[in-house]
Design brief:
The chain is mostly beta strands. The chain has no helices and eleven strands. The relative contact order is 0.32.
């Protein structure tokens, strides 16, 4: 069984920073990509950032230049550094991983439980 556990959410004033972490654990053979999505009340879930293993990082247009995703492959952990936060960044942030649990199997998407980020003065 695979688990993704997020941490680091909270409340911050506009212009502030937060750093989210996501640790993947369990029967993991290979991680193809890890990333973050977010969902604000009344809105669809949207891409924040995704980092394929050995590939190019992709960011949502609204966070480019402010957010940075990184990974520690040895720890199966992804990070999201969020700077210059705006009230419109308020959302539940979900960690995502596309991974295989055995050699030769098809990659499957796993999600964390979500962590709340609130940007307000």
């Amino acid at each position: 069984q695979v688990q993704l556990v997020e941490s680091g959410g909270g409340s911050v004033q506009p212009g502030g920073s937060l750093r989210l972490s996501c640790a993947a654990s369990g029967s993991i053979f290979s991680i193809w990509s890890m990333g973050w999505y977010r969902q604000a009340p009344g809105k669809q879930r949207e891409l924040v950032a995704i980092m394929p293993t050995g590939g190019s990082t992709n960011y949502g247009d609204s966070v480019k230049g402010r957010f940075t995703i990184s990974r520690d492959n040895a720890k199966n952990t992804a990070y999201l550094q969020m700077n210059s936060l705006k009230p419109e960044d308020t959302a539940v942030y979900y960690c995502y991983a596309d991974l295989t649990i055995n050699r030769g199997t098809i990659p499957y998407d796993y999600w964390g439980q979500g962590t709340q980020v609130t940007v307000s003065s």
